[in-house]
Every structure is written in C-alpha cells, then in structure tokens.
Amino acid sequence: MTEPLPLSLLNDHLYCPRRAALKIVEGWRGANVHTERGDIVHEHTDLAGYESQISDSGAKIILLRALPVWSERLGLSGKCDIVEVELCSNLKLEISNLKSLKPVEFKLGKRRKWENDDAQLCAQALCLEEMFGVAIPGGAVFHADSKRRREVEFTPELRASTERAIGDLHALLHRSEVSNLRSEIPRPPPAVWTPACEECSLFDICLPKATGADGRAERLARKLFEI
Ligand code: SF4
C-alpha cells in the first residue's frame, strides 16, 4: 500500500498545483509571515486534548483538539483542528453514544470563502465518516482575524471535487515515483503567476515570474549558452 497523503497538501494543491508539487516532489518547505501567523493561530488547536461545553439546547458538546484522522479508501491522513462531538446522552464519550460530528478548521484572515479551505474541511469529514461510520453533513471554518465562523455544507459537488483533487494528488505522487525509478528528474507543473503568489511561502523558491509557463527562464538559459 502506498503512503497516505497528508491532508494539508490538498489545500496546497487547490491553492496552486505547482506549490503542492514543489513540496511533495522536491521536498521544499518555506516560511513567511503568513505561515508564521498560521502557526500562532494553531498554537491552541495543535495541543491534543478536549474540553466540554453545554449548548443552548442543553446538549453536551465535546470539543476534541488535534484529532488524528485518516481514510484508507482515499489514502489520506492528517488531523482536525477541532471536532465538535454531540452525544446522544450526557453519559460517555463512546462511538455508540455519538449523535453528530463536525470538523472545525482554524484559518488566518477575515471571514471569506476559499475553495481550498472548504475542500480541506470536506476531506477531514470524509475521513471521519469512514472512521466512525456516521454521516457528516457540514463543518465550519473559524476565521481568526475576524473571529467569525463560516458554516460549510458538504454538498455532493464539494465531495466530488474534493475526491477529484485527492485523485490528482495521488497521480502527481505516482508520476514523481515513476520518474525517480527511471532516474529522471520529475518536473513540477509550470508556474502561473496569480495574485495568490504574493502570499505564497514558496515564492522565492518558485520565482513564478521567471519560471512561468511562457518559458522565460528557458529562453534566457538558451540565450546564455548561445555563442
Ligand atoms: S509562487 Fe505562485 S506559482 Fe509558485 S508555487 Fe507559489 S502560488 Fe504557485
């Protein structure tokens, strides 16, 4: 069986396929002010543990932090920042007493919809559904800057696009493994400059304007060696 893919790579892939490829194929990791702020936002949710609350309706809600999740069917593993667990009765936290599960992902920035965040959350739900055998109709993204929460419905379309993206990532990993076996250098997808590049922690490694799909870097390299 192949190694499970890290869930967080799905977010990278939907942000930019080249970003995921630079991480998975070439092993690059980068940090910038956005990733460092992200680490601070996750300081609390990265501490495994739980706390309990009573909802407005009197139900007991358990908040599980940093819960490891995986899916054998999808070849994925990772963790959920928070999983809100509602119990059928206020007794024990055990599978037979689960009423509902809801993943909650913490993100930097103000409340706004990003396709990659929704897919990452949906992938967490797909893992939880497989692990616990319960249907999960929705989750939420908590936006740290505005301290507001955005509910996300796991529609059939979102589930299908999430599974497609996971399939694309496995195909990318497979191509890179085949290249390695043939002692070829795997080529990540070409850079396509977008405004998102300015916030990308791999900007200085990727150099999107120089290495872009218009082949500027290759043209310059050819010119350099022309006699
Ligand atoms: S700098 Fe732009 S093109 Fe390069 S990996 Fe980041 S988002 Fe993708």
Write a structural description.
The protein has 227 residues and is α/β, with parallel strands linked by helices. It has 2 domains: 5-14 and 31-166, no CATH class; 195-224, no CATH class. Helices cover 38% and strands 24% of the residues. The protein has 8 helices and 7 strands; from the N terminus they run E-H-H-H-E-E-E-E-H-E-E-H-H-H-H. It has helices spanning 8-15, 17-24, 33-41, 115-132, 156-181, 203-206, 208-211, 216-224, and strands spanning 5-6, 49-54, 60-71, 76-87, 98-107, 138-143, 148-153. Strands 1, 2, 3, 4, 5, 6 and 7 form a 7-stranded mixed sheet that branches. Helix 4 (115-132) packs across helix 5 (156-181). The longest helix has 26 residues, at 156-181. The model has no long low-confidence stretch (mean pLDDT 84). The site of iron/sulfur cluster has 13 residues, from helix 2 and helix 6.
Which features would summarize this protein structure in a list?
227 residues, alpha/beta, 2 domains, 7-stranded mixed beta sheet, 8 helices, 38% helix, elongated, binds iron/sulfur cluster
Shape: elongated
Poorly predicted runs are none
Distance between the termini: 51 Å
Structural class: alpha/beta
Number of domains: 2
Bound small molecules, by name, code or SMILES, are: iron/sulfur cluster
- Series of H and E elements: EHHHEEEEHEEHHHH
Q: What percent of residues adopt helix (DSSP H or I)?
A: 25-40%
Q: What Rg is obtained from the alpha carbons, in whole angstroms?
A: 20 Å
Task: Give me the oligomer status.
Answer: single chain
Q: Give the overall pLDDT as a whole number.
A: 84
> How many individual β-strands?
7
